[in-house]
Amino acid sequence: MSGKTFISESVFVDIAKEAMRKVEEVYKQEKKGGLAGFTRMFVDRFTPQISVKKTDPAEFEETAGSVAFEVKISVVYGVKIPEVADKAREKIISDVETLTGYSVEKVDIVVERVIKPEEIQEEKAEQKTED
Questions:
Q1: Given 3-state DSSP classes, what are the helix, strand and coil percentages for the chain, each rounded to the nearest 5?
Q2: For the chain, domain boundaries
Q3: ∠ CA 10-44-35 to the nearest 5 degrees?
Q4: Side by side, which strands form the sheet with 49-55?
């Protein structure tokens, strides 16, 4: 059987977002709305922003292509940022390579914001008044 499989950049973004949901210390959004402690609070404005640069295989190459990511995240105050970044990077690489066959060249993590516990309490209060 012949032919090539190409995967859209949006698929890589979706896979990376799913991987990030598995990293407890990263602030992210959850559509269901329940709260389970500081690191499991999900707020729209803290959702990771993910961009992808994809290289598809050349016409006669047998291998899959490669991708590179830039992931902008917010973390909860008090976490060890290098450890969180490593955990997020490893999870994205693992999921993307396993699910797509593409190799991951790099995952740059940009920590844009540190969320303090009092901000979490404010968001919690705002959500209750909206419900």
A1: 40, 25, 35
A2: 9-130
A3: 120
A4: 49-55, 66-76, 103-115
Instruction: Tell me the C-alpha distance between 124 and 116, whole Å.
Output: 13
Q: At what angle do helices 81-100 and 9-21 cross, to 10 degrees?
A: 130
Residue 111 DSSP SS3: strand
Partners of residue 70 on adjacent β-strands? 51, 108
Does 29 score more than 70 pLDDT? no
pLDDT at residue 123 in the model: 59
Residue at 36: amino acid letter: A
CA distances from 24 to 11, 52, 115 (A): 22, 22, 14
> Does the reported pTM lie above 0.90?
no
Quick: pLDDT tens for 63-118: 778 999 999 888 888 888 999 899 999 999 999 999 999 999 999 999 988 888 77
Q: Does 3.40.50.300 match the CATH number of domain 9-130?
A: no
The answer to whether the beta carbons of residues 67 and 19 sit under 8 Å apart is no
**What's the confidence (pLDDT) of residue 120?**
62
